[in-house]
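Query structure, 346 tokens:
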């Protein structure tokens, strides 16, 4: 429920094209929201969603946006289509929570920003590799409170499992999906801004790259699909090196072996996924290396993004994220994608 009220916040979903929709809605429902209606062109996922949230009515997109019971519109459609729906939702007086990437072009981002400014409503993008990962939240908290001195470097790698036969056709179309830097790169920009506290206006894209390492043979629909990418970011006194890919081997027990290393003048923070002797993954943990030695930090916070979102919606606060954060992250990712050289280019 919204903070300070007894009225449940209604959720309307437009676009059920990616499994991220289940993460977004699950968080909001756990925080007290009520699923009201959903619209999707993907029958298989829409059926699964409808079974999961039986109180949600299957309707058209316009019906979702015009429903007075819907307060927050959740977007998980084809990435290139999300901006149009976001603008329509904002103009209808709804707040918007989008899966990443929230948009795929700079022109789309400008339209969403204009609609958010004019309406006064909120446009959030859930960068789940931080907001839904307690270990990353803790590492950022430690970095920002001076546990390792002044942060001078951020290094992150984010290999993802591709599982190509389980992906929809749009996923391999750069125009529809946005490309690897616009997609996975948003997590990396979010990590850099959060860990360093840098003002987005002071961040420079030093270098970026994207490309394809696979030979898809006689499958022209997937030819040229970007499965590797890189971003090098810099702000006053700090740099970031970030690698993203879809090369995680199928043998790893979860979707990707993501790593984050934050280096400061007095120590280092590392977030990594542990794999036990049985080959199964364990929750990500924070390791601190400082002048006392190497130790594991077990003060892992609860992921509160959904409750924070509802509290911000109620009073205009910025607990979940600053009003401009999703715009800043997306703008830098788009800038990096536009400047990207080919992978392996000398």
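Result returned for the query:
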């Amino acid at each position: 429920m919204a903070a300070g009220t007894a009225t449940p916040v209604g959720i309307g979903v437009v676009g059920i094209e990616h499994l991220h929709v289940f993460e977004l809605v699950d968080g909001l429902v756990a925080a007290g929201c009520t699923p009201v209606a959903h619209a999707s062109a993907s029958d298989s996922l829409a059926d699964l969603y409808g079974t999961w949230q039986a109180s949600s009515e299957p309707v058209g997109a316009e019906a979702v946006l015009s429903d007075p019971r819907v307060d927050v519109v959740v977007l998980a459609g084809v990435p290139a289509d999300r901006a149009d729906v976001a603008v329509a939702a904002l103009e209808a007086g709804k707040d918007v929570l989008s899966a990443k990437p929230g948009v795929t072009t700079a022109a789309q981002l400008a339209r969403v920003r204009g609609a958010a400014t004019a309406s006064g409503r909120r446009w959030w993008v859930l960068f789940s590799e931080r907001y839904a990962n307690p270990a990353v939240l803790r590492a950022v908290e430690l970095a920002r409170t001076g546990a390792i001195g002044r942060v001078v470097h951020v290094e992150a790698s984010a290999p993802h499992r591709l599982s190509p036969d389980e992906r929809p056709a749009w996923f391999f179309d750069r125009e529809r999906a946005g490309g690897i830097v616009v997609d996975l790169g948003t997590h990396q920009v979010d990590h850099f801004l959060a860990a360093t506290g840098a003002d987005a206006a002071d961040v420079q894209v030093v270098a970026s790259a994207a490309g394809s390492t696979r030979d898809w043979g006689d499958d022209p629909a997937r030819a040229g699909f970007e499965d590797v990418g890189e971003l090098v970011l810099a702000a006053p006194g700090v740099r970031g090196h970030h690698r993203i890919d879809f090369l995680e081997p199928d043998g790893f027990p979860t979707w990707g072996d993501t790593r984050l290393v934050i280096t400061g003048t007095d120590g280092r923070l590392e977030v990594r996924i542990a794999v036990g002797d049985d080959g199964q993954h364990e929750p990500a943990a924070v390791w601190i290396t400082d002048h006392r030695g190497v130790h594991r930090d077990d003060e892992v916070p609860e992921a509160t993004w959904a409750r924070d979102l509802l509290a911000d919606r109620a009073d205009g606060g910025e607990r979940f994220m600053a009003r401009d954060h999703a715009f800043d992250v997306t703008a830098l990712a788009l800038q990096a994608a536009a400047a990207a050289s080919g992978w392996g280019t000398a």
